[in-house]
Amino acid sequence: MDKNIIMKENINVITSIKTNYLSWIVIVLSVIIVSQPSIIAGFITFFTLMLFAYFVHRFSHHSKNVFTILHHYHHENNNFFSHFSQILLELSLGFTIMPYYYFLGSDYVDIWTTILFTLFYSTVHNYNYGQIRVNDVHFLHHKDIFTNIGPDICDIAFNTKNCKNTEVENTNHYIPNLILITVFILLLKHLSTDDKIKDVMIRLLIVFMVFSILVVSISSVYLYATYKNDKNDKNDKNENDKNEEKESITNTEIIEK
User: Fold this and answer.
1) To bridge 182 with a disulfide, which of 30, 108, 131, 140 should be the other Cys (CB 3.0-4.6 Å)?
2) Nearest Cα to 134, choosing from 231, 223, 23, 47?
């Protein structure tokens, strides 16, 4: 077990839900409100995306490749592009469920709940944790990338809580995000009843999707190529240093003889 991971015996999923019953009530109500009349599909969608986000985030730290390089850049840099690209990545999370919607239909996948979770996840990460820093939970993740992956209930369930953060996180800071996002989605649902407005919304979504894919893809390829070049240069430098050291030792032996 990672030395930075520790779990108290009295901390489990049940204690997390009991501690954060208010935020869970708001989550449940938000899903019910935005997913009507497909409430079951709404809950399937929300919890599937929650687990998906946790595991994608968790395993993205295990290797640096062209698919994960952008998130590694976010951890290694604190600038506009680092945060902007991370937001695009998170907002693109909803696009990954589109194939399932195509094959499974609205009985299992709810588009409005997808928007709810995506905006919820991204705003909590970038505003609650990043801007106003409601607590040290995500800050500790940046200190040790294999802990506090988030959400906290997933870290409890899969034993990835940081040793400096052994209490259940108070997630009441989720509530304002959920309320505002729910109201926003209700507005979108109301506007979408007009076919012309719905057509504009779909077109805007497609434009954003294409823009996100292009920015994320081009940035990832560029950053990974730069990373590989730097790595090769470093290896070449180490190899040259070793050769120079061997040559120096050889010359010293010759002089001594």
Assistant:
1) 30
2) 23
